[in-house]
Design brief:
152 residues; alpha+beta; five-stranded antiparallel beta sheet; 5 strands; 27% helix; 27% strand; globular
Length: 152
């Protein structure tokens, strides 16, 4: 399978870094004319997990986007907290967090975790971009790129 790397970025393990990961994803997929809304949500969840649970002071996280035949988008978010694993039990109904990976599973065709080389942990998700989607999903121009009319 021919694999094209769209983007590899090293970002700070901060909320600003997580927001940048989402913005980079939207920008990259928009430039290629690919649907981005669901992918942006997956990146937002994985990046938030990396900066919340995978953060090691002084170390960054990595975002990689790859397009393969199909087309399939492979999203990888790597951090350096290999020892932190995903909870085996879903969040309770009253919990304020713990549902991010449920969203990832809902949007992705496949997802999982790779360990190594130490101390890396990579959470990945694959999205089939060629599968039928609602005509109004994923192709809207991002709001922050729309021109704003100013009254004179």
């Amino acid at each position: 399978m021919n694999q094209e790397t769209c983007l590899v970025a090293t970002l700070p393990s901060t909320p600003r870094g997580a927001r940048a990961a989402r913005a980079l994803t939207v920008s990259q997929l928009t430039q290629q004319g690919l649907p981005f809304e669901d992918a942006a949500q997956v990146v937002a969840e994985l990046a938030a997990n990396a900066v919340t649970h995978g953060r090691v002071p002084g170390r960054n996280f990595r975002l990689a986007l790859r397009i393969t035949d199909g087309p399939t988008l492979r999203i990888e978010v790597s951090d350096t907290r290999r020892e932190f694993t995903l909870p085996a039990v879903p969040a309770s109904p009253g919990a304020e967090s713990g549902r991010g990976l449920v969203l990832v599973a809902a949007f992705a065709a496949r997802w999982g975790i790779d360990h190594g080389p130490a101390p890396l942990k990579t959470v990945w998700a694959e999205m089939d971009l060629g599968s039928p989607i609602s005509p109004d999903r994923g192709f809207h121009v991002p709001v922050d790129r729309l021109p704003v009319a100013h009254d004179a």
